[in-house]
# Entry
Amino acid sequence: MVDPPWGTASGGMEYPTLFTGGTSWFSPAGSQSPESVAVHEFGHQVFYGLLASNESDEAHLDEGVNSYAQDVALRGTFGDPVLVKRFFGLPVAFRSVVLSRLASHGDRYEEWQLASRSDAPNVPSWSQLDGAAIRNNAYAKTALTLASAERTLARRRGRG
# Structure
């Protein structure tokens, strides 16, 4: 892992056997930054590196499954994240159960809803015309679908 200098805009990228972090001087406590970037980029070593998913054709199998695994790992280690919004360039943390759920999958629900209608997640990324749909289908929509499936189908503790 390489953590580029702050302000170089080069954090959070994966390469075979190498990934970059994204440390910020102003990350509020509980924001899970840079931990979330490190866990996500490391996850690419598994999903496309070992399992050989093809991000060009099936970004949801790389980014989406990885985002879900990242969320599970971080919640298990650190608990719920906080929602961080920027005001005048400075990050402000909001601590709330509802807001922390939004922090995992993006807090721009209307944008996500509109963009996610344009293409299905299994449409190859290179053939999608809408950049917002590519991001939402590859990351949030797949991770949210897997999280919903887990809540719906997972065996509940303490029950037969």
